[in-house]
Structures are given as structure tokens and as C-alpha cells.
Amino acid sequence: MVDTVLFDIGNVFVRWDPRYLYEKLIEDKEELDFFLKNVVTLEWHTHHDRGRTFADGVAILSEQFPQYADLIELYDTRWTETIGDIIGGTVDVLNELADRGVPVYALTNFSAEKWPDFERDNAFARRFHGVLVSGAEKLVKPDPAIFALTVERFGLTPEKTLFIDDRDENVVAAKALGMQGHQFTDPLLLRRELEALSLL
């Protein structure tokens, strides 16, 4: 029986997309699409989640695309604008679980450099019993090593842990370690899953 819940953060509790920032800065849609597909890419961003500093990331990318250096710099200085709305239904679920005494943890691909401000600014992030931030460990999901580290760090029993993430490959990796998995799409569907498991 599942008795512990392990959450992802981005696109489970808050919407996240670099487009939120750059659509304010690049008026031409074709140029915006080009910029997000070829310059500020998810692959480049993931290096920050793996521990690279934003200063280093900005310097590397600015050297490759000097014509976009000013825009690339804003990825660091206006980082908070890549974060969109809070997904209130998921926050409600977290609060209810915590209030019921269910152990709740988080495993997030997130820059160690940006996490402290995010945690400070979002009260829900302080409700977890523990958070493993990829950038601090220099590992990212779906690497099996980060799941194994999470189990060890928090003393989890994989078979009794439900892992919730918006990305299928991360859910698959958690299941390979023996966890239950839920690919997040909607807070109501998540609530129904937790009710079925008698956690809510």
C-alpha cells in the first residue's frame, strides 16, 4: 500500500516555460520560435539543472550567439518570469496530504542557484518533508541515480511511494526503481488517484 508521495515541481505545482519571458521581449513570432528552438533550448537549460551556474551558461551561449547576447543575459536576470501561474489544485492536494500526516517529498530538476528564492517566494514549497534539488546533486531526472539517491536520502520504500511528474520518461524511471507512478496532467485526475489509494 502506498503511504508516501514524491512530487515533481515544475508543471505540477507551477507552470514553467521560457516562452513566458521571451514573448515579452521578441515581438516577431517566427523569430521567437527560432530563438526558443535553437538558442535558449531545453537542452541548454538542463545544464543548469545539472549544476552549471547561470553565469557560465549565459557566457557559453552568448559566445555561440553573440547577436542574442542581451536576450540570453535576461534568462538569468529575469529568470522568475519564466515561471507562470501556480496550479492551485495541486497545492490544495499537497496541503491536504500534509495536514493528514502523509509524508510528502519533492524531487525536482531545478537550478540550485535559483531554488532558494523560489522556495522563499512559494509557501507550498516549504510544506515538503524534504526536497532533493537536481542542481545541488549534479544529477537530473530521468537518470536512475537521482531516484536512487532520493530513496536513500529520505529513507523511502519505493513500493510504498507514489511518484508524480508531468514527464513520461521520469515516471517510467521511477517505476523501474519499484515506485508507483502518476503522469500529471490535471489536479482533479491526481486527486482521484490519491483517493483511490486512500491517501485523500
What does this structure look like?
By secondary structure, the protein is of the alpha/beta class. The protein folds into two domains: 4-15 and 85-196, HAD superfamily/HAD-like (Rossmann fold); 17-83. 48% of the residues lie in helices and 14% in strands. The chain has eleven helices and seven strands. The protein has helices spanning 19-22, 29-38, 42-49, 54-64, 69-77, 88-99, 115-121, 134-137, 144-154, 168-176, 187-196; strands at residues 4-7, 14-16, 83-86, 104-108, 130-133, 161-165, 180-183. The strands form two sheets. The protein has a five-stranded parallel beta sheet with strand order 5-4-1-6-7, sandwiched between helices. Strand 6, helix 10 and strand 7 form a beta-alpha-beta unit. Helix 4 runs antiparallel to helix 5 and helix 6 (88-99) runs parallel beside helix 11. The longest helix is centred in the middle third of the chain and has 12 residues, at 88-99. The two termini are 14 Å apart.
Assign the CATH class of the largest domain: Alpha Beta
Q: Give me the number of helical elements.
A: 11
CATH topology assignment of the largest domain: Rossmann fold
User: Architecture of the largest domain, CATH level 2?
Assistant: 3-Layer(aba) Sandwich
Oligomer: single chain
What is the total domain count?
Answer: 2
Report the principal-axis shape. elongated
CATH superfamily of the largest domain: HAD superfamily/HAD-like
Q: Sketch the major β-sheet.
A: 5 strands, parallel
How many beta-strand runs? 7
Strand % is 5-15%
Radius of gyration: 18 Å
Q: Strands across the major sheet, in which order?
A: 5-4-1-6-7
The end-to-end distance, rounded to whole angstroms, is 14 Å
Task: Spell the H/E element sequence.
Answer: EEHHHHHEHEHEHHEHEH
Helical fraction: 40-55%
Low-confidence stretches: none
Structural class assignment? alpha/beta
**Whole-number average pLDDT?**
97
InterPro entries: HAD-like_sf (IPR036412), HAD-SF_hydro_IA (IPR006439), HAD_sf (IPR023214), PGP-like_dom2 (IPR023198)
Protein name: Haloacid dehalogenase
